[in-house]
Automatic annotation (TrEMBL):
CDD domains: SIS_RpiR. Keywords: DNA-binding, Transcription, Transcription regulation. Gene3D superfamilies: Glucose-6-phosphate isomerase like protein, domain 1, Winged helix-like DNA-binding domain superfamily/Winged helix DNA-binding domain. Residues 9-85 form the HTH rpiR-type domain. GO terms for molecular function: carbohydrate derivative binding; DNA binding; DNA-binding transcription factor activity. It comes from Duffyella gerundensis. GO terms for biological process: carbohydrate derivative metabolic process. This is Iron-sulfur cluster assembly protein HesB. Residues 141-279 form the SIS domain.
Length: 279
């Protein structure tokens, strides 16, 4: 049994380190916990179990495996971290009330209601992006892009729009940026010239596009640097990445947004532009 972590970062690191040794059910819990730290803080055990697709008893076993007497004790680590990072007192009060009452969600119906809900959840996703993205990650990513001879950008299915924008932005910075779109099924051919002086940017979210994962592996074999934009710390992209940005997009009734990913892409492009202007 591991030592009971008193800080969220220590607990998350312990979970990541031991992830491959966990059983299938415990891996489901580990992944959900790593990817939904804010939700863990205030959701009920029943709700967390439902979203992780495990019985509530599995949550207790998971908590015990990491040195806690029960899952509610583990939740306190997430709750305390979130409360400490929430500066606004009104927001703190709202979060505190969630510990006692589970929200009764009502699906929006009118266009005005849908706009209101999406605006609210996207705002929360952007705040989470800022909290979970370190300056060191951003600095390293911009440095890699600045030193790259060629930049290959992979984004399939719903990631395509983010990849297209990033290609567009980098081209306007007069960078040799190439969108890997697999036209004619020529995914590997489009990446066949990649070398250690190049950077590959891969954007993929669960369920991960098989072609994207294969291209990332190809880039890694060729020695290229990899910047991953994905939705999980245990994403198949993360293992090959030099910089891995975990982005949790807003979701309403199964419809996932792309606001946070586009914000990150724009941040990288503008930061690179400012780096160029300073030299």
């Amino acid at each position: 049994m591991s030592t009971n972590p008193t800080q969220l970062s220590l607990l998350q690191e312990d979970i990541r380190r031991r992830y491959d040794t966990l059983s299938k059910r415990l891996k489901q819990v580990a992944r959900y916990i790593l990817d939904n730290s804010n939700s863990i803080a205030f959701d009920t055990v029943a709700s967390i179990a439902q979203h992780a697709d495990v019985p509530p008893s599995t949550l207790i076993r998971f908590a015990n495996a990491f040195g806690f007497s029960g899952f509610n004790e583990m939740k306190q680590v997430f709750r305390q971290h979130l409360m400490e990072e929430t500066v606004n007192y009104t927001e703190r009060a709202r979060l505190f009330r969630q510990t006692a009452t589970e929200d009764n969600a009502v699906s929006p119906e009118s266009p005005a209601e849908i706009l209101n809900v999406f605006s609210m959840v996207n705002s929360q996703a952007l705040q989470q992006l800022v909290m979970q993205t370190s300056p060191e990650q951003l600095d390293k990513a911009v440095s890699l892009l600045d030193g790259a001879e060629n930049i290959y950008i992979i984004g399939l299915r719903r990631s395509f729009s983010v990849a297209s924008y990033l290609t567009y932005a980098l081209r306007h910075l007069e960078r040799r940026a190439f969108l890997i779109d697999g036209l004619g099924g020529m995914f590997a051919e489009q990446l066949s010239m990649v070398n250690p002086k190049d950077v590959v940017i891969a954007i993929s979210y669960s369920p991960y596009a098989r072609e994207a994962v294969e291209l990332v592996e190809l880039g890694a074999k060729r020695g290229a640097q990899l910047i991953a934009i994905t939705d999980s710390q245990v994403s198949p992209l993360a293992a090959f990445s030099d910089v891995c940005f975990v982005v949790r997009e807003a979701q309403v009734d199964g419809f996932r947004s792309q606001v946070a990913s586009l914000c990150l892409a724009q941040t990288l492009a503008v930061s690179l532009a400012l780096t160029n202007a300073a030299t």
